[in-house]
Amino acid sequence: MIEPVLALIGLILSAFFSGSEIAFIQANPLQVEVWQKQGRKAAAQTARLIADPERYLTTVLVGTNLANVATTSYATVALIRYGVPQVWTVVLIAVVILVFGEILPKSFFRENATALAVDITPLLRFTEILITPFIRLVKAYSRILSRKNGSLSQPSLTKEELRLLFAEAEAYEEVEEDELEVISKILEFGTQPVEKTMTSRVDIV
Description:
Layout lengths: L2 H24 L2 H9 L3 H10 L2 H29 L4 H26 L1 H18 L1 H17 L10 H13 L5 H13 L4 H4 L8
Helix pairs in contact: 1-4, 1-5, 1-6, 2-3, 3-6, 4-5, 8-9
């Protein structure tokens, strides 16, 4: 009856990779640089990973998928063996992975992003070495897709889409209210007539 244990290990790994993703995205590069100058060994590796998002994102992507596949497979075998109906098995596994493998770890890692990014760097590097063949396959596939879609132009965001993005950022307290006001004025500036942006000579002191 080793399946439940393997499913639990897969869930823990899923939580680790999900949290790692948000930790490196939210980490403060300046703080990492300070720790690096203070002699923290892992900080130098962390700085290199932060500077190369494709590297850690690919590792996290491959690791998360492998962990979720393991969790789903072994949990399914265990639950069916215990007599749980297939429908409830699917629902239960999906909820557990979503809550304990995604939502909770990301919330925790977000609150302590920079410190945790440095702490987990050695383990993430070790994992990167272990799953190198899978990472290379993903990168090769990504390059093939990039070549095929190279002729397609990337659509730019409209002003309304930018406003929505900044409004959402403000809701998550990632952008201050006064910063959002400045950004909004910048977006509105391009639609103003030239006369409104000019100062008459008689008004110049």
